[in-house]
Structures are given as C-alpha cells and as structure tokens.
Design goal:
The chain contains 15 helices and ten strands. By secondary structure, the protein is α+β, with helices and mostly antiparallel strands. The strands form two sheets. Strands 3-4-5-6-7-8-9-10 form an eight-stranded antiparallel β-sheet. Strands 1-2 form a two-stranded antiparallel ribbon. The chain starts with 6 loop residues before the first helix and ends with a helix.
Length: about 350
Amino acid sequence: MRWCLSFAVILGLSVTDAVSFAQQIGAPRQGEAERLASRRPGSGYLEEGGAGYFATAGVVRFQLIEGRLQLDAPRHRKGSQSLDQNGIYESITVTASRGIPSVHYVCQTDKQQLTLSVAEATKLRIESYLPETGDRAVLEQPESGPVTWTVARGDLKDEYEGPTLLHIHQADPVGFRLHCGVIFKCLMQGRSLRQIEAETTAAMIRQVQNDDLIAVSRDEVLDCVERLGASRRSVRFAASKQLLRWGTPVIPIIDLIDANQLSCEQNDRMQSIRRRLKRVENDTPESLATMLVNDSRHWQSIARGLSDDQIRLANQHLGRIGLERLAIPNRRIEQIARDESGLR
C-alpha cells in the first residue's frame, strides 16, 4: 500500500507549504538547542490548532504512558512512503503483527540524520547524527526496564539511564533537546518534555502539600514484596491486594528492587502487579506526579529548580516514607535545616 502523504504530513504539516519535519531540522540553528523545537509559521501543525494531521489522519499515533513513548496500537495503517527533494530525504514504513504496529522512520538533511524505530508498539530506538559537529546520540527504550541515553562526541561518551523519559531529559536537557527536541514535540502533538516536566513538578508540589496524600513508605512496600513469597495463599493475596490499592506511587520503589534477590514466584507476582498498575491512557501531569511523588531520584533531578520552601516540602515527604532526602547546594543547607527544625 502506498500513501499519497509523506510523514511530514503525518506529523501535522501542510502539503502546499511543503514544510516538513526534515526542513525544521535542516533550518539554521539560532541560540540554544531549545530553538530546535520551534515550528515555521503556516505549517499545517499550527493551522490545525496543535495536533494537525498527526492526530486525525496520521498513519500512526504516539502516546506517553508512564513517562515512556509508545504507539497507540489501534491507530495505525500499514504501508510505506518516501520523499527525496531539495536535499531532504524522508521515509517511513509501518508494519503490524496481530494488530500490534511497528514503525521505521528515516530523516536525512545536511544538518541531521535521524532514525526512529518502534518494534511491537513499545520498544523504541532513536539514533541521531549531527554532521556539523560529529555528535551522535542513541535513545533506547525497551519494553520494560531502564531507558538509556548515550551521547558521543569524538572520543568522549556520556551514558545515562532512568525509568522514564523525564529522568533522561533531566540528566541531559541540552543534548536531549538538540538531538530529539523537534521529533518529540511532533510525536507528542506539540508538547515538549520540558513543558510536561514543569507541569508534573507543579502537580508533585501540590500533592505533597495535600494532607490527604497517601504516604507509602519504602519499608511497607518491601514488606509486601517479601510477603509475595509466603507459603500461605491468603498472605500472598493480601500483599498483592495492598500493593494494588496503593497504586502507581509504589512503582518507583518496586522498580528499584533487585530481581536477583527475589524468588521466581515473587518476580512473577511482581510483574503481574506491575502490569495491572500500568496505565492505558495518555499521561497527565497529575498521573505522572502520582507515579513520581515517591521517586527520590526524580526529586533529586528537579531539586535545582525548586525553591527553598518546595525543597522543605519534598524532604518532609521523603522523610515520612523512609527515602533519602534531597542533596542541597552547600550555601543553602544550613538555612533550610534551620527552617525545617523550626517546623518540627
């Protein structure tokens, strides 16, 4: 099957203007890497109010689920298309097996060479090469387990990993936006990861200010995981029920548990609970905040952007649930410690 629209149109760009995603990449950079995320006026993306063809008539559509990108499986059409003009080459192929789509997209300009591959809806890999600087980057998101981000320039290589794309972006915001800022904003229908992070952080602060927030301690979660290996079925059932009742706030804690320290039965039951807790709808700032509010790693990654009052709130929450408090720049530690003492 051949499509009459290129992936530039799928990403929400008009045919008449011929303003493709590739042309955005190929446009001269001005200032910092964040400018890569801007779109040229007159594109179908803007004319359609934010989602354009990508949301309505696109051959594939992406979702952000628990901070990870995946294809919206029911919304795909199999086929392939390529375009080679004005020094820009694009191609896309969509296949499916038992209704589960896979995508392979290539974009090449004199500014960037980018490949996006998604296998079985959830296994994502993005490779980016910038000819002008020789920089290379690879984003690898498996079906489960940590997301990895590798950036190489000459003989220097930096590697990062985290449970979500938000963790990766916080670890290397400039490099991430430089290599993936435009494509991610397209796939997420006009919203950048920086915008999503800001909204999620605001929701996390609101939640820790809320006295009704369920504070699930690390020890309580570990106790339930231990009881998943009990010989009595009633004990195992009660532990599973409690973990499910707590919901997504337990995810950051159970994801840090070393599977090698658990029995096969415990691992199987943990994976079953993890699958049952998985969202099926697009993330919202509130849902992401609920999942990340007990994640000390994420709190630490956003700490540099928090006010003193917000750090105090975060540390009070992390202390209540038995997690490590935020490391604070030396010049602020003494004052915040005094303020926290005054609150007790």
